[in-house]
Design a protein that fits this description.
Number of strands: 14
Largest sheet: 6 strands, mixed
Number of domains: 3
Number of helices: 17
Distance between the termini: 48 Å
Strand content: 5-15%
Strand order of the largest sheet: 5-6-4-3-7-8
Length: 509
């Protein structure tokens, strides 16, 4: 527990932060969460306005020119396109607000933020189309055809740049949400580990309230090397949250608090501006599979079943074949150049064949461009002691067996291009779990074996989350997460992220 002096110090810091909002805006968005959220929303609102005004201005110059004409309303009234443009810009800003695109809960979050922007824009222009027909407004369709895609592109680009700034700030220890966990020691440690996997979210656990546990003052819980102070062992949750400076309380011990206790806790936290979230105790489940269903006033979270056994498998197969065919045609010059470079610079076959385990444990031959010397397998024993990976994986940053051409191919993931032929034979997919060796599969438990419920992929969550830098446990977790939450939309997102990762070259060796 905190002493009286420490408690006063916490309150003084909160007062100082609240009195310096302007400075927080211009000095890197520091201060309390309320301050930086206010400043961040203001700055993004201004960038949204600039993006929309820029798109409308370009539309004017391209379609209408400098001499802005008028449009006819109801067959009698003339309205200048300046007023049309101003009304469109104001309505666009309003639509972004209605769809909560600037909510602090989605800013910097990525997909959900972009989805809301796209939805707000499409609904607005759909409403404009219906309204123009009803009011008989002769709007220049060419003008709208320019403003719509251009404005949407400007908005998404602006938010993408802001996301880069927000993530960088969060990883530097700024723009943080301070959370106090209410629940068991296990729950606090698990939540700390979950939040620690993604520092881009800016969530930091500053304390734990462990009801009903005998504990000495100053005791801490340890999660992956991080210390979590236990600030309370009774049900003084509000006081404990204020003392540790938390702006959010995450409750996992709902059974011990009860329904009435949770309702009273919401009321008690509200005057202090402290948010309440409930941690359901399930991890790596996509939000699309979570459905809130109130029953008798009690909100229940229903977890939908995974989709990997449904008819979507057919659509995935069709997409894989079409994508692989197009990819082979487009990369044919690269395939030929890589084959020639390998043949000229080193002895041995051009294609390296490796037996991997695919769908439902079936073995298949995976193709890659050879990136090592011809007798690399015989030299394995001499480099075993250099292995830098845990578990069944074998990784070396500077493997001496890799040829100069092979190092270039690996750096840019060109060695994996022949795997598109594996996709055509349906042994692999474009996106899926990492194709394992038989020796890896032999170590699988029942949980890990779920990786084999879908075809392995040329790329996947493991590819866009660190590639060869990932640990065995993290790669396993991401593969299972992909299998459990598969969707075509997620596949498309991973493809886009894969292109960015390959261009960056980070984590490839």
């Amino acid at each position: 527990m905190f002493t009286g002096g420490q408690r006063a110090h916490v309150f003084d810091e909160e007062i100082d932060a609240e009195s310096d909002v302007f400075e927080s805006t211009v000095s890197g968005l520091k201060g309390s969460r309320r301050d930086w959220e206010w400043a961040l929303v203001l700055l993004i609102r201004l960038s949204d306005a600039a993006a929309i005004c820029g798109a409308v201005g370009v539309g004017h110059l391209i379609r209408l020119g400098r001499d802005v004409p008028s449009t006819v309303v109801d067959g009698d009234h003339l309205v200048s396109y300046w007023w049309v443009s101003v009304t469109l810009a104001v309505a666009w800003m309003a639509a972004l607000s209605v769809f909560s695109t600037r909510s602090p809960r989605v800013l910097g979050g990525g997909i959900e933020e972009y989805r809301r922007i796209i939805s707000a824009t499409l609904y607005l222009f759909g409403f404009i189309a219906i309204l123009s027909l009803g009011l008989q407004v002769a709007l220049a369709r060419g003008f709208l055809a320019i403003v719509l895609p251009l404005g949407l592109a400007f908005l998404l680009l602006s938010r993408w740049l802001w996301r880069k700034v927000i993530v960088a700030r969060r990883r530097a220890g700024l723009l943080q949400t301070f959370v106090m966990v209410v629940g068991s020691e296990r729950a606090a440690i698990d939540l700390a580990r979950t939040f620690g996997r993604d520092s881009s979210q800016g969530i930091r656990i500053v304390g734990a309230c462990v009801p009903g546990r005998e504990i000495a003052r100053g005791t801490s819980l340890i999660a992956d090397g991080h210390s979590i102070p236990v600030v309370s062992t009774d049900f003084g949750i509000v006081e404990a949250a204020r003392m540790c400076g938390a702006d959010t309380v995450a409750v996992s011990a709902t059974d011990s608090i009860g329904q009435d206790g949770l309702q009273r806790l919401v009321w008690a936290l509200e005057p202090h501006g402290i948010d309440l979230v409930l941690a359901p105790g399930i991890a790596d489940i996509a939000t699309e599979r979570l459905v809130m269903r109130p029953v008798g006033g009690l909100p229940l979270i229903h977890v939908e079943r995974p989709t990997y056994r449904r008819s979507q498998r057919v659509s995935k197969a069709v997409f894989d074949i079409l994508f692989a065919t197009i990819a082979i045609l487009l990369t044919a010059p690269v395939l030929i150049a890589a084959a020639v470079a390998i043949k000229v610079t080193s002895r041995g076959p051009i294609i390296y064949r490796s037996e991997r385990i695919g769908f439902e444990g079936r073995p298949f031959t995976m193709y890659k461009f050879r990136t090592m010397v011809n007798d690399a397998e015989r030299q394995l024993a001499s480099v075993t002691q250099l292995n830098e990976a845990a578990g069944p994986l074998f990784k070396i940053h500077a493997d001496p067996r890799i040829t100069p051409v092979g190092r270039f191919l690996r750096k840019h993931s060109l060695d994996e291009l022949p795997q598109f032929f594996n996709v055509l034979t349906r042994d692999m997919s474009i996106i899926g779990p990492r194709p394992p060796l038989a020796s890896e599969v032999a170590t699988y438990d029942g949980h890990t074996a779920r990786r084999l419920l879908v075809n392995p992929g040329i790329s996947g969550l493991w590819q866009v989350s660190g590639r060869s830098d990932l640990s065995w446990e993290e790669a396993r977790r991401l593969d299972i997460m992909y299998v459990e939450n598969w969707s075509m939309w997620n596949d498309l997102l991973i493809i886009v992220k894969t292109i960015l990762v390959v261009l960056n070259g980070k984590g490839a060796y």
